[in-house]
Structure formats: structure tokens, C-alpha cells
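Lab notebook, bench 4. Still working through the backlog of constructs that have no structural model yet. Next entry is a single chain of 184 residues. Request: give me the C-alpha cells for it.
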Amino acid sequence: MKRLIIYSLIVSGSLFAAGCKKDFLDLTPISSVTTDNFYQNANDIKNAMNGVYASLQLPGIHINNYIFGDIRSDDSQPVASGSVTDQDEFDRFYIRTTNPFILARWNDAYRGISRCNALLDRIGAIEIVDSLKNRTIAETKFIRGLIYFHLVRTFGDVPLVVKEIKDPDVALMLALDADGRIAA
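Model written out:
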């Protein structure tokens, strides 16, 4: 009985050891989409363009535009007036640096710019019809310019980013760098 257990352990161990190769466990996930494996064909370019257009619906870019314009004039009032709210700060021209509308404008704008830059950097390597490629490039550059227009109206000089940035440290250095800015 002991001999049978020992033999079965030896056989099981040898099968287990032979079956474990390093590449056996290192599979590339086929179900997850990343920026490295997404841009493959014309349909992917159209989907990426839809993502660029979806950036315009982010709250910091267009949805809250009335806060940065109309509330600061006599055209409208903050929704919840009577107490000091985040919108009321714009009406009183006393805006904290921690105001969530300011943070949303900055973050959402550069999120949209990042989508534009990713598409512009990758579209050249894909075999698609020239008319679709040229139209996509033109639309993407227009949307990126529109987002920069809103940034400059809100903040004045802002960092100009025209290439995709994958490293967060590089993005931070661009924000701190005085060169490469769009002047208001």
C-alpha cells in the first residue's frame, strides 16, 4: 500500500512538474481591450471617434458651461441659491481652488484631449480608406481645438499636449513646465 502511494505521488509530481512551463501561465488576455491592441481596423477607428465625441458630454467640458459663463453674468442664477454652494461661488466671483467644477473642467478636458491624441497617434499605422482617415483626423483636431478653447477661456495659459502621454510623471512635468503652453 505504501509502495502504491509513493509511486502515485512520484507519477503525479512528475506530471505536474512537466506540465508547468513559464509561458503556460503567461497568457495574453483576449477579452480585455487596451490602447495597444484596440486600433486594428476601420471599425475600431470609428469606435475611437465615437469615444472622442463622447468626451464632449463629460460634465467638465460642455454640460457645465453655463457655470463658467452665464452664472458669472446677469443671465442666470445658481440653481441652489441662498446658501454658499459650489455654483454660488461663481456668482460671487469668489472661487475656491478646490471647487469641483474647476477640477472637473481641467480633468475632463485633458481626458478628452488624451482620447484625441491617442487616435491621432495611431491612425497613421492602420490601413483604411484615405477619405475616412482624413475626415477622422480633421474631426479629431477640431474637437481637440474646441476643448483647448474652453480651457483657455477658463484658465488662461494651459499646457499644450499634442502627443499621447502614457506616463503620468511626464504629464505632471508638462503641467509644471512653462514652455509649450497655449497663451490666452
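Notes after review: Residues 165 and 171 are 7 Å apart (CA to CA). The mean pLDDT is 77. Flag for follow-up if needed.
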